[in-house]
């Protein structure tokens, strides 16, 4: 598979890095010679220095032979023009584009159905808002997502000393919890992602990811010692695109919202656009302001400014003032290993949201979704099993999966199955797998050769 990435910024670099690890044929195009030189030095990919909106540059990059073109520069206009030119030169090349300007939203359908015939439009900010809303509902959850149109959930939680499963072997789950047992897809311990086996133990302090039927989510959380409570009051620090979109979403559900924004002009703009949200002009790190607004009474505090350090400090301040449920926007991947050590658990990232959306489109054939977790150190992959698949030829215990991968759920028509070693996968089943980053390449090869997913 040949993939051209237009844009060598954070998203372009990260996608190129992921695909290079998976032995994809990747070409990165950017007008910034310094950016392309860095990618050429760091990654095993080809680079072309030039504008992605220039036909000659795209031809040099090999767009005629490309399977996919990703346009992810910081300019929406350049991204659109790149797709338009690619559509003229190579109509069969699939085109994925990142568009952040809200003004383009009414035109998404026409951009897909008419030239430049964009196959998928990715809005990272909108994806981040969805993630924040999911995290709000479970105060103890560090991460949360869904599969099969919401029928299956995955949740990441930090185990406390009082958790019923702290210190327990996974092989004992079935005897203690029966069919209601949670299936642990991953354990993060000392910043390392572990795909657990029967003899592994879940320990206090671990960050665990489990998968369950959505209808059984609350009961599963109870088994793990986690309670769910409704969110009625939210404070948002940062009135940019994400803060604005989030406040709109919360308003629609009649949740009381306050936004703290440092720019008076932006405050005035937000005040004109919002129906019920209270807009406060001030510094998000102002402890006096937080005290005046009774921050300890908030059900959630969300920090989404454009500055990582500010978001971290404000979240820590909110926690110190009695708020358990804080959600922090982080852009720098280098911060991820440090965050849990200082008490920052719930983290969202537009870059990671964009990467997950793009990977989902790059995975071919019967792969339905692809979700990265924990700073992209692991992936959940949702796919459909084919009749020719090796995975349908016997019980799971006899299937040789790559080390670092785990089949975590089988969906068969209306039935959701948390598998055991004796479970079987049938043709047409949806399956959800988890893999650590180092195993993704081997898993894709296995899926390609043996399962026919890709």
Automatic annotation (TrEMBL):
Residues 142-226, 368-449 form the RCK C-terminal domain. It comes from the Bacteria. It holds the Pfam family TrkA_C. GO terms for molecular function: potassium ion transmembrane transporter activity. Residues 1-122, 231-348 form the RCK N-terminal domain. GO terms for cellular component: plasma membrane. Keywords: Ion transport, NAD, Potassium, Potassium transport, Transport. InterPro entries: K_uptake_TrkA, NAD(P)-bd_dom_sf, RCK_C, RCK_C_sf, RCK_N, Trk_Ktr_HKT_K-transport. PANTHER family: POTASSIUM CHANNEL PROTEIN 2-RELATED-RELATED, TRK SYSTEM POTASSIUM UPTAKE PROTEIN TRKA. This is Trk system potassium uptake protein TrkA. It comes from Desulfobacter postgatei 2ac9. The lineage of its organism: Bacteria, Pseudomonadati, Thermodesulfobacteriota, Desulfobacteria, Desulfobacterales.
């Amino acid at each position: 598979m040949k993939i051209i990435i237009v844009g060598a910024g954070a998203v372009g670099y990260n996608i190129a890095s992921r695909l290079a690890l998976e032995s994809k044929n990747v070409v990165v195009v950017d007008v910034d010679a310094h950016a392309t030189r860095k990618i050429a030095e760091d990654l095993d990919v080809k680079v072309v220095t030039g504008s992605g909106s220039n036909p000659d540059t795209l031809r040099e990059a090999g767009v005629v032979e490309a399977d996919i073109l990703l346009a992810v520069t910081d300019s929406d206009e350049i991204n659109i023009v790149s797709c338009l030119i690619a559509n003229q030169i190579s109509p069969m090349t699939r085109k994925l584009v990142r568009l952040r300007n809200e003004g383009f939203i009414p035109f998404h359908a026409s951009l897909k159905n008419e030239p430049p015939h964009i196959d998928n439009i990715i809005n990272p900010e909108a994806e981040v808002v969805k993630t924040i809303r999911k995290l709000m509902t479970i105060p103890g959850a560090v991460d949360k997502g869904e599969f099969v149109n919401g029928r299956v959930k995955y949740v990441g939680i930090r185990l406390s000393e009082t958790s019923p499963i702290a210190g327990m072997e996974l092989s004992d789950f079935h005897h203690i919890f029966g069919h209601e047992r949670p299936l642990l897809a991953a354990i993060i311990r000392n910043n390392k992602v572990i795909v657990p086996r029967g003899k592994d133990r879940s320990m206090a302090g671990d960050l665990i990811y489990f998968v369950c039927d959505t209808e059984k989510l609350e009961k599963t959380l109870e088994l793990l010692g986690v309670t769910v409570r409704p969110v009625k009051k939210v404070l948002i620090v940062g009135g940019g695109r994400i803060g604005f979109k989030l406040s709109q979403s919360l308003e629609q559900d009649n949740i009381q919202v306050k936004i703290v924004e440092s720019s008076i002009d932006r405050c005035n703009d937000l005040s004109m656009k919002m129906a019920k949200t209270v807009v406060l002009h001030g510094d998000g790190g102002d402890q006096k302001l937080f005290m005046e607004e009774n921050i300890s009474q908030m059900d959630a505090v969300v920090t989404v400014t454009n500055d990582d350090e500010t978001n971290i400090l404000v979240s820590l301040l909110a926690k110190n003032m009695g708020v358990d449920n804080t959600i922090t926007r982080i852009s720098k991947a280098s911060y991820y290993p440090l965050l849990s050590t200082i008490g920052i658990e719930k983290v969202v990232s537009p870059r990671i949201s964009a990467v997950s959306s793009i990977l989902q489109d790059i995975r071919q054939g019967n792969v339905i979704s692809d979700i990265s977790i924990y700073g992209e150190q692991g992936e959940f992959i949702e796919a459909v099993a084919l009749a020719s698949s090796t995975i349908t030829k016997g019980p799971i215990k006899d299937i040789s999966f790559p080390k670092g991968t785990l089949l975590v759920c089988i969906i068969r028509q209306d039935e959701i199955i948390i598998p055991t070693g004796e479970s079987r996968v049938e043709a047409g089943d949806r399956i959800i797998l988890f893999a650590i980053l180092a195993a993704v390449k081997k898993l894709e090869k296995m899926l390609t050769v043996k399962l026919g997913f890709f």
